[in-house]
Amino acid sequence: MAETVVRVENLKKHYPPNVKAVDDISFDIGRGTIFSMLGPNGAGKTTTVEILEGLRNPTSGSAHVLDTDIFKDYSKIRKRVGTLPQDFEPFDLLKPWEAIGYWANLYDIKLSKKEINDLLESVNLTERKNLMSKKLSGGEKRKLGIALSLVNNPELLFLDEPTTGLDPKARRDLWNLIGVIRDKGTTIFLTTHYLDEAEKLSDNVAIMHRGRIIARGAPDDLIEKHGRCTTIVLEGTGKAGLAKLKQMGVEAKLDEMDDRNVLVDVKKHSEMKSTMAKLTNSDVPMDDIYTMRETLEDVFLNLIGSKMEEGVLKE
Amino acid sequence: MSRLTSDVIHYGKQYLRSKIGLFFAVLFPILLILVFGAIFTGGGDSKINLNVQNLDGGPMADVLIDNLNKSETFNLIEVPTNESITEYIKNNSLTVAMVIPENFTADINARLMNSSITGYVNVTIYGDPSKTTYSIALGATGAITNGMNFGLANATPIVGAEGKTISENSKFNYMDFYLPGIIGMTVMTNALFAMSSNCAEYRQRNYFKLLATTNIKKWEWLVSKFIFYTALLSLSLVLTYLVGVAVFDMKSVLTPMAFVLIAAGAFTFTALGMLLGVFIKDPESAVAVANAVGFPMMFLSGSFFPLEMMPSYLQSVANVLPLTYLNNGLRDTMVYLNDGSALVNLAVVFACGMIFFVLASKLMSWKEK
How is residue A53 annotated by DSSP? Predict the structure, then answer.
């Protein structure tokens, strides 16, 4: 077990008269990992992050960040933590290299020209460093935000919905950047309402809904625990093949979308290899065979009962 | 570089790169001094057009008209005698007109011949009391008819009044008295408007939250703005002053106390802007709130008009406005060279600033509840 960087126990944030923004949540984050808090808008993600950033006071509970009780003395760890707030917009009329130097000064750090250039290089903004920040694209602005959050070389980085509102390419660029930062040993606390983002980036995920964590674990574990199954698709097997499969004692069904295909659900990962072997060694007709794995999106649908688009729950 | 120095430099860079900020801080006061200077000292035809209907036509009416012409106060325009004066005024949108009545000469002569006949032989001044031209015409005509009375009575006036500027240096002109008001207004508008909208923008863009995650303190952030605005507005003061001296030959003096007052004003109005920013949620509202606070203060504090011109209840309002004391202090030191009186005004400005600063520091939170 990696060293614990964040430990939260029974954290609550209530607003009168009866709004439970954060309702008795507990979790911990290991050093050098990416922890994603996943949930729709209003789930309590940002409130949680802002409590951990020292920007809000909780109603009750405890939180230790980098071995410090943050409700007693956050100032001790301020220089060891980096922050990218939700909907970050850089200072319009500062150039990226100026903004980085300025932000470092606010942490009482003097960065050399080379250090500023290295930071710009790490977020792929070298060629844009002399442009006014207002002229950067949405993705570049977020990259600059991440660069600012790294000026103090933090051990723990909070990224509050870093890719919200960005186009797919910009999102993928940021995912790569976040991966690189993690690979350098920085622990990352990420909030997102993008299920694919959480699944791709995270070592651990907490699904949050109405102030509570309703599921927590590694993405694969969550999919296995809360997903229905992984599905094997037998292409071109058709009704005749389906009958043969049933004779073999294999539970299978026709694909509702395309009745030339037959679907076989595998409930547990451990059964995948043997089921696959059984099917490929049989004389059931098929043009192709492949698996269709459930995702966090399916898990979310199973747990919440709704799909989520851009942070909004859909019936 | 320290947090404070870095914040001053980088805030300043942003402010100066915003063309609007630079315009209002530096160019606007220069434009104001040029425009007002052109209006009040431009040497244009400052005579009042006085429409005169002479229903008498006698020699006494001619003497009066001659005296009116000699006064150099009026351009006389003749109104036909067959016109109704009230209709004529309406049809020509006049603000002032004079009627010399029929028998003007005969009535005067009658009084000269027979001292038992009493009562004035009046000319009538028609006009709009809300217009200054009316009151000027009334006053000037009164003085001219009074002069006529002395002539008719063969008397020599003994008691008189001599106009002099109230400064020790008689070379001061109107713009010297006006400049401190422009400077005071510039200090107030730049610091107040910029700070209130900065606070709203910082909140909307989550910059306060970001700042709260760094080592900079609230007071450092406010002091940095105070330092920047003091430097910027001092520069503005010097430039406006130099333009005034070069173009209008102003003789007021740029004293050290004027710079101290600029600093106190910058402190007071940045703190007031921050205090307003506590209650403002977005930059659009900030503009509205700053206007609601700033504009009445601008007009009520003697920036453009002497306080004595205002009704007493408005003068009472002016007495609680910090800009009044800033304007008065600047006039005290720059025009009257009275640093003792300026010091009293400085103390009031600074005291207001301290109250705003303490309130803003207490009430403003960079964190969420």
Answer: T
Residue B154: both structure tokens together: 């063969």
pLDDT digit string, tens, across residues B98-152:
999 999 999 998 888 888 888 888 999 998 877 778 888 888 888 888 888 888 8
Specify the DSSP class assigned to residue B25: I
Instruction: Return the sign of the alpha-carbon dihedral for residues A30, A33, A39, A43.
Output: positive
* Rounded mean pLDDT, B300-305: 80
Using a CB-CB distance cutoff of 8 angstroms, which residues of chain A are in contact with residue B215? 78-79, 106-108
Interface TM-score (ipTM) > 0.90:
no
Q: Would the pTM count as exceeding 0.90? A: no
Query: Of B226, B236, B225, B304, which Cα lies nearest the Cα of B25?
Result: B236
A105 contacts on B by Cβ (under 8 Å): 1-3, 5-7
For B269, half-sphere exposure in the C-beta direction (CA atoms, 13 angstrom radius) is 33
Which domains are present in chain B?
A: 2-40+173-363 (no CATH), 48-152 (3.40.1710.10)
Residue-wise pLDDT tens digits, A252-294: 999 888 889 999 988 777 888 888 888 988 888 999 999 887 7
- For B214-270, what is each residue's pLDDT tens digit? 999 888 998 899 899 889 888 988 898 898 888 888 888 889 999 999 999 999 999
Per-residue model confidence as pLDDT tens digits over B49-65: 889 999 998 999 999 99
A interface mutation test: which of B213, B220, B228, B369 has the most A CBs within 10 A? B213
Between chains, do A85 and B209 touch, taking CB under 8 Å as contact?
yes
Q: Check CB contact of B213 with chain A, cutoff 8 Å.
A: yes
How far is the alpha carbon of A306 from chain B, nearest alpha carbon, in Å? 30
At residue B165, the pLDDT reads 57
Q: Do B209 and A50 touch (CB under 8 A)?
A: yes
* Digit-coded pLDDT (tens) for B305-322: 777 777 788 888 888 899
Tokens of A273: 């290899």
Residue B66 CB partners (closer than 8 Å, separation 6+): none
Check CB contact of A19 with chain B, cutoff 8 Å.
Answer: no
Chain A residues whose beta carbon lies within 8 Å of the beta carbon of residue B216: 106
Amino acid at B219: W
Quote the CA–CA distance of B246 and B252 in Å, as a whole number: 12
Per-residue pLDDT tens digits for A4-48: 999 999 999 999 888 999 999 999 999 999 999 998 888 899 999
A contact residues 36-75, partner B, Cβ 8 Å cutoff: 50, 53-57
Cβ proximity of A261 and A233 under 8 Å: yes
Q: What is the spatial distance between Cα B27 and Cα B242, in angstroms, rounded to a whole number?
A: 13
B213/A93 CB distance under 8 A: no
Please give the sequence-ordered ranges of beta strands (E in DSSP) within chain A, or none if there are none. Answer: 4-15, 19-30, 34-38, 60-65, 68-69, 81-84, 156-160, 187-192, 204-209, 212-217, 230-235, 253-254, 262-266, 288-292, 307-309, 312-314
CA atoms within 13 A on the CB side of A182: 21
Rounded CA-CA distance A5/A249 in Å is 50
Place of tokens 């910090």: B322
Give the Cα separation of B343 and B257 in Å (integer). 8
